[in-house]
Model the fold of this input.
Amino acid sequence: MIKAVRRVAYAGMAVNVAVAALKGFAGLAFASQALLADAVHSLSDLLTDVSVVLGVRYWTAPADEEHPYGHGKIEALVTLFIALALVAVAYGLGSHAVQSFLAGETSSPGLPALFCALVSIVAKEWIFIWTRRVARSVNSQALEANAWHHRSDAISSIPVAIAVAAAHFLPSLSWMDSAGALVVSLFIVRVAWKIASPALQELVDANIGDKADEVARIARGVPGVSTVHKVRVRRYGGAFAADLHVHVDASLSVAEGHAIGHAVSDALTDSGIGVTDAVVHIEPTRRQAGPEAQNLP
Done:
């Protein structure tokens, strides 16, 4: 897993350096504020690539005495850092675009600036597709967030290309270069929220409803289980932890009930849905319980 994540992250770093340098040079040489804003966005991608390369070593570390649940939440922290970095970039780009627009600053970018924007779209879409494929194969939230960061760079270059083309071919629309930079910043904020939301949910141990439904379905399929309730599932890194209550026949011995609990736990961890830890609480089925069991807490 570590090798796969680092390989695609290093590739992303190489693409980001090349694209940022190309757009930055073209933005300065051909007077395009929108393209310069997009170059800064590409540099922010480089920052998040570095955070993924450094972070994967820690969030994949096995559980130890001080961290019995593993180190998976470090991945959520890295993901949140990526989102905050995006917000910071968006604020800088957006505020500069607004100031330029209000000051009446205009520019007529050269045609090569449009070519650079188109190259960026193709390159970043390619690295997005590759990164997302690896992220889903290793079930990495941080790597998928980084993939969407690449996609945000690709898509943000579209309004840049439109703005540059409009400002170049129609000088009366030269204000569109600043407008394109503002559109880029707003799009970056949207992407930042999209990748931050699941990380925040993980950090506050939010229950994952759809995964809880899967856990309940698998548990009900284990022989000896009557009903299932109080199912809770939380995410940590690329894995899930579940705890649930299952009802079994009250006439069973403690050993038999214990065996059913183990069977439920094994069924969940072997199911392929990403559950690596399951705590199963055994309860007697009330309608089958005798007087002694009815009085149990």
Observations:
- Confidence is low (pLDDT under 50) at residues 292-297.
- Strands lie at 227-236, 239-248, 275-284.
- The longest helix spans residues 73-102.
